[in-house]
Each structure stands twice: as C-alpha cells, then as structure tokens.
Design goal:
This protein is an alpha+beta fold. About 50% of the residues lie in helices and about 10% in strands. It is built from 24 helices and 19 strands. The radius of gyration is 26 Å and the shape is globular.
Amino acid sequence: MSERPNRLAAEKSPYLQQHAHNPVDWYPWGEEAFEKARQEDKPVFLSIGYSTCHWCHVMARESFEDREIANLLNQYFVSVKVDREERPDVDNAYMQVCLALTGSGGWPLTIIMTPEKKPFLAGTYFPKERRRGRPGLKEILPQVHNFWIQEREKILDSSTEIIDFLKQQKPEKTHDLDKGAIHETFRLLEQSFDQEYGGFGVSPKFPTPHYYTFLLRFYYQTGNQRALDMINKSLTAMRLGGLYDHLGYGFHRYSTDQMFLVPHFEKMLYDQTNLLEVYLEAYQITKINLFRETVKEILSYLKREMLAPEGAFYSAESAESEGEEGRFYTFTRREIAEILGKDRADLICQLFNIKEKGNFREESTQRLSGKNILYLREQTPQESKTLVKDSLNKLFLYRKKREKPALDDKIITAWNGLLISSLAQAGGVFPRSEALRMAEKAAGFIIKSLYLNDRLFRRYKEGEVKIKGYLDDYAYFIRGLISLFQVTQKEEYLKLALSLAREMIELFWDKKEGGFFLNGRDSEKMILDLKDTYDGAFSSPNTMAAYDLITLSNITQDSEIKTYAQEQYDFMSRLAIHNLTALAGFMSYLDLALTPPKEIVLVNDTGKKFLDLLNKSFLPDTNYVYPSSLLPWTKAYLKGSAEPTIYICENFSCKKPLHSLKELKAALKKRNGRTA
C-alpha cells in the first residue's frame, strides 16, 4: 500500500477514504478524470462500491493494493472510484449496463468505458489472477488496452449500441391493476415461501421487508390466516437466527444460507429502519412479545451505535474487523467458558448452539470454522431469562474490548427519512419511549443542515453538505414527515411535506411517460435517464413517491397532488403487472389507490387520548387529523359541541359522531377486529 495519498484523500466518503492510499491513481467521479482520459486517449476504469461491502474489500486487497495491478491501471487507464451510496445515479446507470451485458449485477461493480462515459465492458468482482473460470485483472487489463488501440471503431460502435438498447427499454401500455392483482401477489409470495425455515427463496436469503409490509396489509384487508402465519414464522426465524445480533442487537445484511444462520455481517441503517417498521406493525397486529422486544432492541442499537451527535443517523457498520469478516461477532467455545464460567457457559452454549468445533462452515473451504455465531432454535425459557440476559450482557461487555468494525459515518438524507418514519411510528406505539424524540431531532437536523435554498441535499459529513438530493432523498424524507405529522399532528411537518412534494414533482417528474426520474432537472445528466422503480433492499423511490402522493392527497384533498398521485399509480401499475413480486412494495400500497379514502377527524381531543389510541392501532388505510386551517375540508367539524368528538368517515360519508375512548375502541374493533 502506498504511503503517498492519491486524490481520494480529499474526499469525505469513508469508502473513498479506504482507497486513498492505494497505489492506483484514483480520481473521484468528476470532469477532471474524463478530461484527462480524453487528453491522454485512454479508456476509463470505473469501480463502484460502498464502505461495508465485503467483496469490495476483497478486491481492494487483492488488486487495488497490489502494485502490479496498479501499474497496469495507471499506465493504460484513468481510474475512477465511486461510493454508490453517495452517487446512486452513477451506480444505477452502470448497473443497468452490467445487468444487460452479463445478466447479473452486484458490488463491487466494474465498468470500462470511453472518455465520453459510454461503457463497453462490465462485471462485478474480478480477482487479480484467473480463478475458477473467472478471468483476472492481470489478463483483462492488457487485453482491453490492446483492443482499445487496435479495434477502437468496434469498441465505439459497441458502446453506442449498448446505450441505444437500454434507452429503448420502456414499460408497455397495459390495463390498470385491480384488487385481483393484490391476491395474485399473495399467491406468488406463498409459492416462494420457505415452509421449513421461513423467509423467501433458498440462499442467499435477504430480509426483504417489503414482502412483510405487503403481507401485513394483505392480512389486514382479508383476514387471511396464511399471510399472518408466514409473517410470524419468518420474523421469528430472523429474530432467533444468526441474522440477528443477540448481544448488541440489530440485523446483519443477509443470510448466506437458507436457515438465517450465517450472515454477511455488515449492518446497514436501512435494514434496521425497515425491519423496525415491520416488527412494530407485526406487534401491533399480533401483540407477540418477541416482536415488541425486537423493536425495543433495534431502538437501543440505533441510539448506541448509529446516532450522530447532530441528531441524525450514520449509514452503516462494516462486516470486517482485524481483516476478517465476522471476527467481532463470533466466539469460540473456550472463550465463552472463560468469560462466564463452566456452569453458566454450559447453559448459554446449549441454548445458543455453541459447539467446540464451531457451528458454521467457512465459506471458502466448507470446513467447520471453530467459531460460533450465537443463534436460537426456540425462544429462551421463561425461567432462564434473567440468567441468560445477564450472561449475554457479560459477553457483550467482553466483545466491546475487541477492535470494532469500521463505521461509515456519513449521514444520508434518504435513509434518515425512512428511519424518521419508523421512529415516529414507534413513538406512537410506545409513547414514553425515546423514539419520537429521536425522530423529531433527526428531522430537525435535515431541515436545518441538508435543506438549503429550497433544495434537499443528499449527504452530510463533518460539516460538509454535498450532492443535490435525488428522488429517494425527497420521497423518503417526505414519508418521514408524513409519519411525524400523523403521530404528532404538528402542522409544520405537513406543510413541509406538501412543499417538498411539489418540489419533487417539479424536479423529477417525467412529463412525457409519467413516473419520476432518479436525477433532478438541475443535477448532472447521466448516460441514461433512470427511474428507480423495483423494490430491492427497500421500497423503490417511485414506490415511495406513489405512497407519499396518495397519502397527501387523501389528507389534504389537494386536487393537483391527487392528479399526480393517480398518474404515478398508473405508471407503476404498467410496471407491476409484468412482475408483481418485484414491486411488492408498491403492491403494499395499491389498495390506497383503489379504495375511497378513510379518515378520522378528532375534535377537542383533550390530552390526546384519541390520538394515542389511534397511534397504537394498526390502521394502514386510514388517516386521522385534527381540524386545521391547513385542511379546509375539516373546518366544518369545528362547528359541533365543545365535548370531545370523533368522526369516522368512509366511502365519502361519515358515521354518527363518537364521544369517548370506549366508543372509539368499540368502533375500531367492529371495523376490523384484528387491530383492536
């Protein structure tokens, strides 16, 4: 590794900083790199990753810290590094290329392209030397250089053909979705459900929180017990398995096996955010104590490890420490005996499946590792809970002395917006917890530090605000503001949500085809005009924009917002009909567009007793408000008596007014017994 820093040393991104002392002459994404490529007549080697990506670290150690590979890159290419979390537009554009050329994608993403940013070679991880049929950079880089010199015209033609092909990919015009599509989505999820271990598919197995968001709402709408069984089995399996950190709390990225046992150990803010919401909603419906405990523990983890002094939240914790993935999280049988003593260690090892030879196999050799991941096959017996809790705390304190995985301490507006929503909802369900206070403080930080001159920005780190916000920054932060308004009824949150929604339409709306572009009209133009639409680790920005617009139109009855909400649902429907489960996040909210709005108006709610009850209830299809000048349609409700009053309105008509908590509880139970 070079002692002399390269250009990445001036960047704030933790991922770019990780490569600041590579012998590769890296450039950050920007015109300087492409101008150099044009002047020196070289292709551009683009490498995209993120700070907690395991295979990014592997490729860095094997190749980017290797002088032989660095010399090839420095001689024949201009090399550019991109943090995909800071620049999702660059990542999405070239990921589409990789998917089109290779049929698969992932990170690290490797692209070789012309100085005009047109790609002609794509892949993900490449070793230094050829391995198991996978070509190595040592042979690829000279071959590409020779091809660039000798077959330039073929390269340029190929790169143009790739871009032209991708630009022609547009959704077909189809009929609108109806409620039958919701039932078909459930049928498809049921087919892919793992009956034995929970979750969906085989391996690797991701948490896929939007699947559970869909199933929770499907159960709420239909009472289908099978949907609830799938939810309970999966959430229990994830919580008991190695996917969950039983000592420090929070979820790892995904499971490498079918059983939720061996994870990739990185912890992402967005996973904690989405699973916090899923476990919270599942608890609202089922009242299962394990789900309640999980919510509380995720909140504890977020406050302890991810909360920045400014009040917003950091991005991720790495999988690696001391050069080894999972080193921080795993234990030998001997370590546990030394920490706890024999008798207590025997109990913990029995409960958490700790073995002398280890309880999982190394991914590379498939041999038992000698190390153990704490996991449960069933919940801790009630009589052992106090002893187990004390023992786990001792293991946690011991683990704290180890070298911790690296923290990606940049603050991303989009991910914080999602978390604000989940925290606000948790603050409604558990009103004396710190969740709501954390949500409001995080929102306040974004408003103060990342919303400048009527424009959201994406990233904050060490006082630096950088990169104009993308669609996800707007859509997810609007979602957070809507949740804060719903739980607190503070008008400033609704006002800002409406203002940002109008800005989102102005900046990102596609006036020709509908839907929202990822980049704003005032942002750097990419090789492709991208619309991020498919639900992956979390619901896509276009899914969330659809939710935001229909919810705001239902709350405010604003005709302009309502028009865009309908057009956005039409656009997303054209995509969803071809692959319902790939847009399961959107399908979660389809019922909001297909049914008339449901509203509850609270008048003279002294002490917020009515509001507290509604916040604790699972009511995904219902908005509840206090009468307000911001909501002209509610003014008529102020003319009633001075006593506390509840108006429940459905199908454009209101039921007889209610006046007590007892009556409201009875009405909710009658309306949907599963939420009472």
